[in-house]
Amino acid sequence: MKAPPSKSSMQRACAAALLRKGVSILHNIGLSEDEKAAISIIQMLGADVQLSSHSMKVVSEGVKPFSNQLHCKESGLCVRMFTPIAALSFDEIIVTGAGSLLSRPMSFFGDIFPQLQIDIVSNRGKLPITLKGPLTPKNIKIDGSMSSQFLTGLLMAYAVCDLAHEVHISVDDLKSKPYIDLTLAILKKFSLNVPFHHNYETFIFQPYSHNSFSETIEYTVEGDWSGASFLLVAGAIAGNASVLGLDKDSVQADKSIIKALQMAGAILDVQKNKIDVTSSKLKAFDFDATDCPDLFPPLVALAANCVGATTIKGVHRLLHKESNRALTLQQEFEKMGVQIFLEDDSMKIIGSNMLGAKINSHGDHRIAMACSVAALRAGTSTFIDSPNVVNKSYPDFFTHLQQLGATIQV
């Protein structure tokens, strides 16, 4: 089966297509809820979007808002990336969202935006946010310890500003560096101003004058290692899986699922555009997921089916997701007979014979997918509450799981 399109790549490409003055065509697009949010946002910010089967044409003259409302649905990347981009405009814009996004802390906007001459009013550090630009690039310093997504938004916004002199963005303790590599690669592909950096600690933009482009840019969204990680783990614990459309040379952080599977003893055949995985006797492993926190759910599903105690580091990255994933993983996997212990920044998973259970997805797409994959080895049926939450990132997840041989009733 083919891996779903990478929503991390797709959402960034949408932003770049908006910022680039000209015509851009995106191929292999995804239409998960997060990707639909990105498409809607660039339309609100002035892009003309024409959708066709698996592709999208974007015609843009830069950020020229059609609406003063920017709705990010439940996408954390959308709010953190597009808010600095929206601030390029002179217009007053209200940024809001839905669901768990409304409770996530957004105080970093209030810390940084006044330094960039952006007026901002927030709901005590949370959404909705009212802002008024235009953003004026300055030398700034930001905290990168919780997420790289705000830095992505700043890099995107700075990349289209006319600069008379060099400007710097300094970053303390940056996490998820591969996602910044993805951002920089997309800036380069769309011929925007790409900063160079010193060990991800200082990003330096050189003087630049932003122009319109006469040629059409074509960009193909690569396969998603985040979504495909669930399929690969399913193959490792319950049978065989062959996943197409994954670039083994990708800069996506979640490509490191291959390393985890190898450490656990799965049988892998990694080719240029295809990965075959075969189940085998799996053993416990130690893994640092600090730079790839979205891998925690499939890693827990894998560890639950390993012999021994697996340790995964990076728990602090799980607090402000669609749920507090450390606690929800612990709670739901306990129902399936798996003990999970949390200590400081580590999670210990004790492998066990899986039990069928009634699972609460907590409105979190990755919890629903992780428990579904783990259930492939359960002796009895598992019931997943609110299975449609997978539409946030991977609408075809249950269809693909059926293609692997799972019996699923919706």
Per-chain topology:
Layout: H1 7-19, E1 22-27, H2 33-44, E2 48-52, E3 55-60, E4 69-71, H3 76-86, E5 92-96, H4 107-112, E6 119-123, E7 126-132, E8 140-143, H5 149-158, E9 167-172, H6 177-189, E10 196-198, E11 202-205, E12 217-220, H7 225-238, E13 240-244, H8 257-264, E14 267-270, E15 274-278, E16 286-288, H9 296-304, E17 309-313, H10 325-335, E18 339-343, E19 346-350, E20 358-360, H11 365-374, E21 383-385, H12 397-403
Parallel strand pairs: 1-12, 4-5, 8-9, 16-17, 20-21
Antiparallel strand pairs: 1-3, 2-3, 5-7, 6-7, 9-11, 10-11, 13-15, 14-15, 17-19, 18-19
Explained architecture:
This protein is an alpha/beta fold. The chain folds into 2 domains: 7-220, Enolpyruvate transferase domain (UDP-n-acetylglucosamine1-carboxyvinyl-transferase, Chain, Alpha-beta prism); 225-403, UDP-n-acetylglucosamine1-carboxyvinyl-transferase, Chain (Alpha-beta prism). The protein is built from 12 helices and 21 strands. The strands form 6 sheets. The chain has a 4-stranded mixed sheet with strand order 2-3-1-12, covered by helices on one side. It has a 4-stranded mixed sheet with strand order 4-5-7-6. A hairpin with a 2-residue loop joins strand 2 and strand 3 (55-60). Helix 1 (7-19) packs parallel to helix 3 (76-86), helix 1 (7-19) crosses helix 6 (177-189) and helix 9 (296-304) runs parallel beside helix 11. It is globular and about 65 Å long. The two termini are 21 Å apart. The mean pLDDT is 95.
